[in-house]
Design goal:
about 240 residues; globular; transmembrane helix; membrane
Length: about 240
């Protein structure tokens, strides 16, 4: 297949997936709405003798829910019902993976932008519907910082989506991963909760406590590429229907 034919195939599959999975955007709205409700109690609080209880509000909970949404949405791309529909457009396995990569990036952009804006929506809702006095905000109005913040969120969501895509591909490769991977994830969460896994904590710091935008970009994109490489290798044995 020539480069022009590959690009045409990827473009057709991308728009097909955009139409087929348009319902994911409705689930995104519901997911983030639920997250906003959970955020009404604030992401932290301190007690002040003169003022009383001070609550801090941010989009952190919305981001966590959006990460989960991206992970689950990417899993759906690897399920057999979807792959059977995709065969109408697939010319080879490479075009399928490339279109999935771009589709998940588009999902991540929409999810990241809405997650970022939900922080402002949360503060407006709390101010309007709760008997709280607004003391101040630390919102940064610099356009460059805002754009960098949105791109960073999009990259993190894209990374979680690529992880979900990789997990789904591994399950297609070997069904034992359907049991093994959830067991590993649950075990890691338990270890983190018990603060007994320094390695897992270091991994979290490696990705989420980076102050340099360039390093965040490199780390997340490298992880995305690695996940899709593993996905491509693990699904190489699967039949591609003409």
């Amino acid at each position: 297949m020539s480069f022009a034919e590959l690009g045409k195939a990827v473009r057709k599959q991308f728009f097909y997936k955009f139409k087929l999975f348009f319902g994911l955007f409705y689930s995104l709205v519901i997911t983030q709405a639920i997250a906003i409700v959970f955020s009404f109690n604030g992401t932290g609080s301190i007690s002040s003798g003169q003022i009383g209880q001070i609550h801090f509000y941010s989009a952190d909970i919305v981001l966590v829910f959006t990460f989960g949404w991206a992970f689950i949405s990417a899993l759906q791309l690897t399920t057999k019902p979807f792959r059977d529909n995709e065969y109408l457009f697939v010319f080879n396995r490479l075009s399928s993976h490339l279109s999935n990569l771009l589709f998940l990036l588009a999902l991540s952009f929409i999810g990241g932008l809405s997650a970022y804006l939900s922080g402002y929506l949360l503060k407006v809702a709390v101010y309007m519907f709760f008997d709280f006095q607004l003391i101040g905000t630390n919102d940064i109005t610099s356009p460059a910082v805002v754009v960098a913040g949105i791109i960073t969120i999009v990259l993190y969501i894209w990374m979680f989506a690529s992880l979900g895509y990789m997990v789904g591909s591994l399950v297609q490769f070997q069904k034992v991963f359907a049991i093994l991977i959830p067991s590993i994830i649950i075990g890691c969460l338990i270890l983190v909760a018990l603060s007994e896994s320094e390695a897992i904590i270091r991994i979290g710091k490696f990705y989420f406590f980076e102050s340099s935008f360039l390093l965040v970009f490199i780390k997340t994109t490298a992880t995305v590429c690695l996940c899709f490489l593993i996905s491509a290798v693990s699904t190489n044995h699967l039949e591609v229907r003409k």
